[in-house]
Write a structure and sequence with these properties.
The complex is a heterodimer. Chain A is mostly helical. Chain A is 56% helix and 10% strand. Chain B has a single domain, classed as Divalent-metal-dependent TIM barrel enzymes (TIM Barrel, Alpha-Beta Barrel), CATH 3.20.20. Chain B is built from 9 helices and 10 strands. The chains are: A mainly alpha, B alpha/beta. The structure holds fe (ii) ion.
Chain lengths: 271, 290
């Protein structure tokens, strides 16, 4: 069993190397397992191709697969960076965070964090926010609806004792706040336009209903109120908490508007 | 072990692909069976699994994996196998297949089907892993021959001989991809008919059909476009040896409308009989009248 593990480790080291195949077989990651001279002898030529050219077929396909998988989870990021820069991003990302799972579902988990740390891809803070939004959408897409429970039914209009009323919140809800308006940016990118990248705070709710993912842009007071309701607070306490975090009470008009948004988007329902 | 473990001929099926989800659910096309890529349905409780549940309620389903790494040298991932087993039970999978290859080592997954050297050492190693997987899954594992683009000098036997011995030693089934046999035969310069004739016919559980792309220096298994005439001829030869077996068409690049893929799949009926379904019982002639 000594030969097979060595051969497999060598082959993998060459395949995941970002340089040419000639560079890859000379890299320390490969020569640890097989010397360059042994590497050439390990493979057979074909009628049309030399051994290393054949290995290069596999090496060439690796970044394409990673590109495709990450672009599926981060279409906005891929569109913003463009094909070449996104490919560059993919190679540097998987060099640090290669797939360690049987599924691609986890490959992109650390993209927002990676963007923030490397700072190689500008504008860094904007891209990290955009990636965080796209990550949340992927995670909500994957949520187990059987475990999360059904979406709440629409709230009944009962006038009595509104302050002690509790509302059920969409079980798949994710509330996100950003330094950049990445929701509108994502819309722009999807329609082939250039998004605004100046800092502008934004708040977004992402949730799923009947296996479709919905993204709702919120105002700040809506974000604060929904956050308080998510903690299971009755409406009175939720309004007080939102007011405290807002620095001033929410106006009646703002509360009315918030409830219209929450119910129209089915973000909350009967508790 | 009896004739291919008593696994049934499922007729002519199509690979379940995201772009066709809506069509399949709304139109319920008359397809004999579907094959789902196992890993796409493992860690999700979202729409893909919902779709697969609905498909499984209406059609026979088989699971086809791409990450088992049966030829790998890392320990088998028992957590993964437990999930595969649970999914197979959930969708009543008629069988579970994967590929004769490794997909990564040292904890990594390249998500490719990488070739292994065909040696006695590899044979012992893979056979022991296949037996272990079959024990865990509590069903025979079915393994596919992948397309390959390189060969190891250390191989001491052909892929066909390796496969034939593995099927017996590890008591498993084969998913015979005739397009992969063709692609590899051109890339490595062997006779694809000799390859087919070297396989034990009673171990072939399923066929794969697909198109490939000629890159000039080699053929690439792209699952794009229609299957080539030479490959249909190979299928005709293979199915004449084995008798009718579940046959599935894979289309993964530039995927056309469902009907076009299904039509391509049904060309298999030129070479194998249609699936015999249970006929409705004869209507009784005499009807009791009150
Ligand atoms: Fe296949």
């Amino acid at each position: 069993m000594a030969e097979l593990p060595r051969l497999e480790r060598w082959m993998q080291a060459v395949i995941v190397h970002p340089g040419s195949v000639a560079e890859a077989v000379r890299a320390r990651s490969a020569t640890r397992h097989l010397q360059v001279s042994d590497a050439r002898r390990a493979l057979l030529p074909s009628r049309t191709m030399a051994p290393l050219e054949r290995l290069a077929i596999y090496q060439g396909m690796y970044p394409l697969r990673m590109h495709e998988a990450l672009a599926a989870d981060y279409p906005g990021l891929a569109a913003f960076l463009g094909h070449e820069r996104f490919s560059d991003f993919v190679l540097s990302y998987v060099a640090v965070h290669p797939s360690r799972s049987y599924t691609f579902a986890h490959l992109g988990h650390r993209v927002p964090e990676f963007l923030r740390k490397t700072r190689r891809f500008a504008p860094t803070a904007f891209l990290a926010d955009l990636a965080r939004l796209e990550r949340a959408m992927t995670e909500v897409f994957e949520v187990d609806e059987e475990q999360a429970g059904p979406p709440p039914s629409p709230p009944r209009h009962v006038a009595t004792d509104w302050a002690s009323r509790r509302f059920a919140v969409s079980p798949t809800l994710r509330l996100l706040s950003f330094r950049y308006a990445v929701g509108p940016a994502l819309d722009a990118l999807k329609s082939g336009k250039r998004p605004a990248t100046r800092p502008r705070a934004s708040w977004t709710a992402v949730h799923r209903r009947r296996y479709s993912v919905y993204r709702v842009e919120l105002r700040r007071e809506e974000f604060l109120l929904l956050g308080a309701l998510t903690k299971g607070r009755p409406l009175g306490a939720a309004l007080r908490e939102a007011a405290r975090r807002n620095g001033k009470p929410l106006s009646p008009a703002a509360v009315t508007r918030a409830f219209r948004t929450f119910t129209a988007e089915r973000l909350i329902g009967e508790g | 072990m009896g004739d291919r473990f008593g696994l049934p001929d499922l007729g002519v099926g199509v690979g379940l692909r995201t772009v066709h989800f809506g069509y399949i659910l709304s139109k319920e096309p008359d397809v004999d069976f579907f094959e789902a890529i196992t890993e796409n349905f493992l860690d999700t409780g979202g729409r893909p699994r919902y779709i697969l549940d609905r498909v499984a309620a209406r059609y026979p389903v088989v699971l086809h994996g791409v990450s088992m790494s049966i030829g790998g040298t890392d320990p088998l991932d028992l957590g993964y196998l437990a999930k595969v087993k649970a999914l197979a039970a959930r969708v009543k999978a008629r069988w579970v297949s994967d590929h004769l290859c490794f997909t990564g080592v040292s904890g990594r997954n390249t998500h490719d089907l990488l070739p292994i050297p065909y040696t006695e050492e590899t044979l012992r190693h893979v056979a022991q892993r296949v037996r272990r997987v079959s024990e865990v899954l509590e069903r025979p594992l079915v393994l596919e021959n992948p397309s390959s683009y390189l060969e190891f000098r250390s191989s001491t036997m052909s892929e066909a001989v390796f496969f034939a011995r593995l099927l017996k030693d590890a008591d498993c089934g084969m998913l015979l991809d005739v397009n992969n046999v063709y692609v590899s035969s051109v890339n490595h310069g062997f006779d694809p008919y000799a390859y087919l004739d070297a396989l034990p016919a009673d171990r072939v559980v399923q066929y794969h059909l697909a198109g490939h792309t000629d890159k000039g220096t080699h053929l690439l298994d792209t699952h794009s476009a229609r299957m080539k005439k030479d490959v249909w001829a190979l299928y005709a030869h293979a199915i004449a040896r084995t008798g009718p077996r579940a046959t599935l068409y894979e289309w993964d690049e530039e995927i056309p409308a469902f009907g076009a893929v299904h039509r391509e799949a049904k060309k298999a009926l030129r070479y194998r009989p249609p699936l015999e379904r249970a006929r409705p019982v004869e209507t009784p002639r005499r009807i009791a009248r009150g």
